[in-house]
Amino acid sequence: MPNPLENAVAKAAGTAGVVEARLRGLRGVFTALAEQHHEVGSLLARAESATDPEKRQELWNEIRKELISHEQAELIDLYPLLESNELTRAISRDHATNVEALEPLIQEIDRIGVASSEWAPAIARLIATVKAHVKLEETKLFPAAQDALGETIAKELEAPLLRTKALAKEALR
């Protein structure tokens, strides 16, 4: 688990993500997801700069859980709803196409290990992929989904998604 300072920095980044999302008009589930995006972004930046294999492993364990549980929650609580609605089906499919690259990168980092000379390029590829995914979701997919679903549904989806993410993260321990 990252140290308390790293956790505080990640939480501050998450709060900044919420503020940015709200300024763009996002609410409910979409601000919660933006918060998670920014928190994991902070942890990824710290992992990229870490040189000590133990620190890398500690950060990687948390990042891996965050990425996987986040995606599982989206796939259970958000994207099926978007897929079932003709107005939002394209959003769901854009997400599915875009997210395909994340799992192989996570597996690659697991395979090579934190002490490998391949760590830095692999984590850099993951960071670039996560940033592109976040940009797509926060600037295109989430606003379109919220416009189609409405603010009330966006707010109603937040608690179930957070519950699913917590359960998924716990299962990864």
Provide an overview of this structure.
The chain is mainly α. The chain has one domain. It is built from 7 helices and no strands. The protein has helices at 4-23, 29-49, 53-84, 89-99, 102-112, 119-149, 151-171. Helix 2 packs antiparallel against helix 3, helix 2 (29-49) packs antiparallel against helix 6 (119-149) and helix 4 (89-99) packs antiparallel against helix 6. The protein is globular. The N and C termini lie close together (11 Å). The mean pLDDT is 91.
What count of helical segments does DSSP give?
Answer: 7
Beta-strand percentage range: under 5%
**Approximate shape:** globular
Largest sheet: none
Key descriptive features of the protein:
mainly alpha; globular
Q: What is shown here, in short?
A:
This protein is mainly alpha-helical. It has helices at about 5-25, 30-50, 55-85, 90-100, 100-110, 120-150, 150-170. It has one domain (about 5-170).
Present the secondary structure layout.
Layout: H1 4-23, H2 29-49, H3 53-84, H4 89-99, H5 102-112, H6 119-149, H7 151-171
Helix pairs in contact: 1-2, 2-3, 2-6, 3-4, 3-7, 4-6, 5-6
